[in-house]
## 1
Amino acid sequence: MKPWIVRAALVTLAIVASLGCAKRETPVLHVYTWADYIKPEVVQRFERENRCRVVIDTYDSNEAMYAKLKAGATGYDLLTPSSYQVQVLEKQGMLQPLDHSRLPNLVNVDRDYLAIAIDSGMVHSVPYMLTNTGVGYLRSKVGELEPTWAVFDRSDLKGRMTMLNDMRETIGAALKSLGYSLNSTDSLQLEQAKDVVLRWKRNLAKFENEQYKGGLASGEFVVVHGYNGDLMQARAENPDIAFFAPREGLSLSCDDLVIPKDAKQVELAHRFIDFLHDPEVAAENSVAIQYLCPNSASYDRLPADFMNDPALRLAPEVRARSEVIRDLGSDLVKYTRIWDVIKATP
Amino acid sequence: MRRSRAPMWLAGAVLAFLWLPIAVLVAHSFNASRFGGQWTGFTLVWYERLFTAADVWRALANTLVVAFGSTAIATVLGTTAALALDRYRSRLQDVHHLLVHAPLVVPEILLGISLLLFFVALRLPLGMTTLVAAHVTFCVSYVTLVVLGRLQDFDWTLLDAAQDLGADGWTAARRVLLPLLAPGIAAGALLAFTLSVDDFVITFFVSGPGTTTLPLRIYSMIKHGSPPIINALSTLLLALTVTTVWFSQRLLKEAR
């Protein structure tokens, strides 16, 4: 045999052997989450403190992740799906109940948020990061705006505004503007909401989910309905962009920490959840990934500009009027029907 | 008679169509704007971030391990399959032919889900093994078809001649058959490698904990994170490929 083949074989053997050893010695926690969703330094600290390795895999949509797990994929110890997906996973019996005795830091979780959360008792899930859907606008073009959904009634901005191409978000905004719940299933309320969206539609350039960020940053649009994360990215680029949270209330969404039924490192997963709700860690993580971890004890550790940013933290009275979009089951068809009419009306 | 200029224009248009997007990508890797809609200034910040993004490098390493592994296996299996298909005609080979074509026409998502269900039924833990096995499944068909094409104008009497001159079966295969097939095998291997590096749908379903590949990572980054880092990474990979090709061509020239 040629000497280089021997050498290559030896090196391969050594690598395989060392991998094998490493596996036996240190426990590995497998986290399945969105890209760039936990600060790497925080993860390293957890690895040091718990003498373990954390391996992070990423998915790009709740639905794809669910399809994969449903088909039988295993090996993940911790997931971060959005609340509505947690509801589905839970209904299918794919999650473990959490052992609160191993999670002392749960006392830090924001009670105000829990009051409106789907899993208020944190039976299966612990909230990880909060996002909301508000309005972004260009200060130099429209001045300071009153924080209200009625901005979409401004016919002087006709053709320069967009709303999300998402029926729950946009019909939800209309319901909120009328003072109703955005999870309403009352036909009369929904009928009124339809008329509001139709009225707004006359002033909109389009319903749009992706290009509105770039469109606002470049000045093509002046007022957009969008996700706070997207709008903050756009704002980082164009400081002229401002964000407001409509005072009538808006939709909140949360990604939750959950442990799947077949997790192998249940103990370690609990420790990781608890670690992420350590006030120090939660604050560091929030600043790094630019979302708010609903952890009350971490709030006074956050820099003032972060806490005063309406895109990140809602004023208590607005927060009280806001809601989480819930899975409506068979009533969803009422929304679909209205949305079809809205989309079909020129 | 004057020659028509049309072929030149057409070639130019095709080249532009192929290369302009890449040029735009390279330019955007230096663009300060996160969205790439407009030019907001020159920056190296994405490269800086890239070098500290351990997850991206791990994903790249996974991708390369899978690509090299599945290409190696698929090339051997595909070549032997092509030889069998070319040499023998029987009912069994007709079925074989059908099986080779199946992964080309079956929608990827179907292949992905069924492979996942299969692995789950076998109680195989998802990971590198299942990922390589799945990639071999679709790569093998491409290698087979490319090698089969090469075999179509292969003169089998050459092998008989070699054996007449005293070569045993193995020597004849090694000294006559393989060198003549080499371009086909190499082309098939390159195709398999590219497909493996590219694949998203099947990979998504059969990858396991710790084996996120680059395409999976990129898709997730588009939703959450900074896509421009990927522009920077692509530019570096492109530079690496171009240098390698240039270098190997130079070596070939010198050898001649």
## 2
Amino acid sequence: MTEYSRGAKGSFVSTGAQKPVYLPFVPNLVKLLNYTASATPAQSGIPRAYWDANMGQGFSIVDLYNATPALITDSVDVNGISTFSAGLSLQYGATKQIIGATKADPIVFNVTAHGYSVGDIVIFEGLYQSATTGMPQISGMPFVITAVDDANNFSINWNGNQSNYTALSGSPTGAFVKKVLYPFLYVPGVSFIEAITTGTTTTIVTTAPHNMVVGQEVAFRITNPWGTYQLNSLPNVALPGSPIYGYIVSVTNSTTVVVNINSTGYTAYNSNQPVASLAGMQLPQMLAVGDVNTGGALITAGSDLYPSPLVNGVRTINGPAINGAFINNTRQGFIVGAGTAVGDAGSVLVGAASDVIYWEAYFIEYTSPY
Amino acid sequence: MITNTGNLGPMILQSLAPAMLYVPTPTMNYITVADKISMPANGGTTCRFMRPRALTPPTVQLGNSGIDPAAQVPQRDIIDAQMAFFGTGCILNEQVILQDQEGVLAWVSERLAVSMRQAEDLILRDYVVSAASQINAGGGSNGDNPTNLGISDFSLVSTTLDTNNAFKFMSGIEGTLKFGTGPVRSAYFVLSSTELQSDFDGLVGQGFKSSWDYPSTSSALPSEYGSIFNARILTSSEAPVARGASANGQDVYYNTWFGKQALTHINQDGYSMKLIYRDPMYSGMLAQNATLSVKFAQSQALTQDTGIRNLLCTRLASLGV
């Protein structure tokens, strides 16, 4: 049945963190060869790995170097190889109990075996320490995980060290976090605002990657309690009815942009919202409304001559587009996790930073048992 | 001894009922409210929209100097959207087609066509979730963020869109002398979840009017549940819901308000909604397998960001199942 089977191969340089590989199909067989670990045998190195769909998601069988170093076999049972098909939004991972959270900037959350990585997007619910205290103000916004302190603690981009925020402790009832499984399916879109610096230009920090580019035209939706409402596209006092937009003049990083609006004298941004005004609280937003670009993404070393747009640092599976266009980033493929072999906690399936990994992925049409 | 079916049973125990059972399928509302344009062939990967900006009305008098005022510089906004391609299909061994009693090719074709239409709608839905700004309901009484829908939420969003000079879709329906009916305002479309229908029913007497209470139902769409103030509400079970995403861990519903031209659906000239049948002759040396497939090209853009809002809400009470 080779007529209907599919195969693909490729390589990547590991960062030490889990690696998604986009494909035109969802594979049911994946093989990995870590060139670096194979060429320089050392304890805990994983030169080869194998995954079959019948093993289940997140597993893998690996070759592993022991202390000698000699090859042995082992399995990765958590954060091994898994597949994904990211076609629908509003899908979430497991709901996890929050044990505690610091009143700090950034806020550090304590969640037993959270399993998250830097760059994952999460949302929160029920962040009450009592009926009137806690930090439920940040519910409803997606946050990027900016640091993973250890297996049980991670940080997000928000200033919790303000008078209206209270630390969480003792596993508050109903306080949960969950991962947004497929963020950024369509970009650019709405971003939520963590901070604003006013001046001759305006610097916006978002809670999660904004996926905007230089030349992007943006609008703001900020209600008065958050301050800086003067950025809003409407009302326009000078020309009633005509929306006021800004343009992004530089992208500092994935969560920070500079907009060409002179906000000197505007009300200061205020994320110190009281818990008491939570019901019906509006959230401050920046959204893409257009762009002034005429060309596509610039080439980089190793890229296509006409590269696809970048979304959160990864190119889409579609072709080239105008920078700043609304694009589709639905995708599928497999993920090489950063799990460890059962018998060697020092091993990492995806390898160490700078390891060169070759992969093969197949969708085999005929399998037995089907 | 009486001969019965225990000792002389039918040789064939079953017969196929004459009609297929229906397939539960959500109503697809997003394509209904989207503007539609076709991107021409050989036009690149990206569709570009242009919207002029308003010029400043000359409200200052010229005076008698004979000097012209300074000229204005016309400006425009540009919106780009990249085309994307989609498709799916089935491989049918000829023995299935030859031996199965039902018309396999017919009903698989129908299923593929429906899946294609549903994909079109779900793509629009998820795009709107990601791209349109949101307003949290605060007019309800459940103390959550967002709250359940209160009548003031409808006023707020309607006021917002009116103030933004969004265009309403529907002109009003004039009142008639029919018992229990009342006039309907000119309205935006609001796309909501069927799970919110009981909450809408709870607003009867506060402003909600069932579509059955319109003076004439001739302009009501099949999925139209009713209206509140300047909103005509279409419901679907596929409307977006963020499960357990409110401040109190309840489900959050997206009620998307649309003005005209707020959302535009773009197809590709000559490449939209193709249903493809390939005879087994095109497969392998023994020509064993036929294929049935669909493919289409689609893009989408918010073309009037001022004319669209996601009104987020929770429910007043848990849904019965």
